[in-house]
Amino acid sequence: MGALKPEIPRQIVQNLKFCRLQLRSGRNKMLQYLEAARVGSWFGWIFNFGFGSVLFGVFPFERTVIGLFAFSLATASVFVLNQYFDREADRENEVKSSLPVASGRITPRRTLIFSFLLVISCLILVIIANVHVLPLFVVYLGLWTAYSTPPFKLKSVPVADFAISGIGAGLLPFLIGGGLNGKLISNIPSIMWGAVPLTIVHCGGHIIQAVGDYEADRKTGVQTFVVRYGQKKGVIVAGFMFLIVSLSPLIYSVFGLLPYRHLFLYFVLFPLSIPIVMRYADLLKDPSTKNVINMQKTTRKYGIIGITVIWAYALFATIVSF
Q1: Which CATH class name applies to 36-321?
Q2: Tens digit of each residue's pLDDT, the chain (322 residues)
Q3: Residue ranges per domain, the chain?
Q4: How wide is the angle at C-alpha 37 spanned by C-alphas 103 and 180, nearest 5°?
């Protein structure tokens, strides 16, 4: 006869099951907070930060990474705080109703605490990386707070809504990235040609997002530019902004702000815009939430390739110039 296997006491088995359930519950809660940060919605903001960080010179790698983490925490806090104040409107939104705060998976109190902790962690990292960019971070956080919170709630002020988004998602991340090496003041022309297209494209992107949020915003009384002037006009204005951005490299070259030798990259990347333009044409015909989502998915799919190539090229050009 084989040796009898020792039986594991029932209490130990129950404790192991309990520990496993606790670990699973903890992991699910962590994923909920990560979902509340909405990382997938601000990849473009990270590019703007990264573009600014390499355009004016290469900063020490470790401090750049710390600065990136600080910026990511600040941006996550912005999105979390926005969900706190928008939770009622988000429940009316077919896309955003499943977000952790709107769906009740994270309580309003915990949402505020989470946002506060993200801000504190961000400021500590900023001081470690480069205290000189602290004012830019304060402006960044203050602007987005005014965008979401009463009594300002600038997201409900037509034109100001997309202008704040352009500055907060385009200009300021670019300046924060560039501010790490302390050479912003000596690079005014580079700031101009780098920041203006980024600001305009994010203005247009905000309008497109507002087209998708039109019904929920209208029901909850959020007077965005799109609610005031209509979805069709919103799509047209955003398209005009995208057109300006797409032509900006050519315009800059004509006025001597961008050397002609860099234009080859423009023509290399141009085919990536074709699927996005096709999605935009669908949205122009039918400015529905479904078409907004389709356009955003296509933009992320092809845009991430384009911005990665642009960032790598800017880094290479900066290194070579030194």
Answers
A1: mainly alpha
A2: 455 445 556 665 555 454 554 445 455 778 889 999 998 889 899 999 999 888 877 777 888 899 999 999 999 999 999 999 998 888 888 778 889 999 999 999 999 999 999 999 999 999 998 888 999 999 999 999 999 998 899 999 999 999 999 999 999 999 999 888 766 655 666 677 788 999 999 999 999 999 999 998 998 888 999 999 999 999 999 999 999 999 999 999 998 888 888 899 999 999 999 999 999 999 999 999 999 999 999 999 999 999 999 999 988 888 887 5
A3: 36-321
A4: 165
User: How many Å apart are CA 249 and CA 238, to the nearest integer?
Assistant: 19
Q: Which pair of tokens denotes residue 51?
A: 């573009």
CA-derived radius of gyration, the chain: 23
Where are the strands (E) in 116-227, listed by range? none
Rounded to whole angstroms, the maximal C-alpha distance in the chain is 93
Which residues contact residue 259 at a Cβ distance below 8 angstroms, ignoring those fewer than 6 apart?
253
Q: Which two tokens stand for residue 89?
A: 């409107």
Q: How many residues does the chain have?
A: 322
Contacts of 45 (CB under 8 A, 6+ apart): 71, 75, 169, 173
